[in-house]
Amino acid sequence: MKKKDQKEYWRRNVRLLFICMFFWFFFSYVTGIILVDQLNQIQVGGFKLGFWFAQQGSIYFFVALIFFYSWRMNKIEKEFDFNEKES
C-alpha cells in the first residue's frame, strides 16, 4: 500500500472514531446527565425520557454504535483492500 493510501486510511479511521466518540459522549453524558431535567418533561411508555436515557437509552445506543462502527470500518477496509480474505 502506498504511503498516501495509508495516510488516507488512518485519517478516515480516526475521523470515524471521533464521530462515534462524540455521539457516545452525547447520548451517555449530555442526555443522561446535563439535559435530564429537560428530557424528563417528555414521557415515553410511562417513563420520563431523561430517566430512560440515563438507565437504558445510552446502553442501547452504545450497542448500536458498536454495530455501526463495525459496519463502517468493514466498508473502509474493503475500499483500501484491508478486508479479511477467505481462504
Could you characterize the architecture of this molecule?
This protein has one domain (3-79). It is 77% helix and 5% strand. The protein is built from three helices and two strands. The longest helix has 32 residues, at 3-34. It starts with a helix and ends in an 8-residue tail after the last helix.
Topology:
Blueprint: H1 3-34, H2 36-39, E1 43-44, E2 47-48, H3 49-79
Antiparallel strand pairs: 1-2
Helix pairs in contact: 1-3
Q: How many DSSP helices?
A: 3
In the predicted model, the low-confidence regions spanning at least 5 consecutive residues are none
- Domain count: 1
Q: What gyration radius follows from the Cα positions, in whole Å?
A: 18 Å
Strand order of the largest sheet: 1-2
Please report the distance between the alpha carbons of the first and last residues: 21 Å
What letter string, H or E per element, gives the SSE order? HHEEH
Q: What is the tally of beta strands? A: 2
Q: Main β-sheet, in a few words?
A: 2 strands, antiparallel
- Beta content comes to under 5%
Structural class: mainly alpha
Can you give the helix content as a percent range? over 70%
What value does the average pLDDT take? 89
Shape: elongated
Characterize this entry briefly.
The protein has 87 residues and is mainly alpha-helical. The protein is 77% helix and 5% strand.
Main attributes?
87 residues, two-stranded antiparallel ribbon
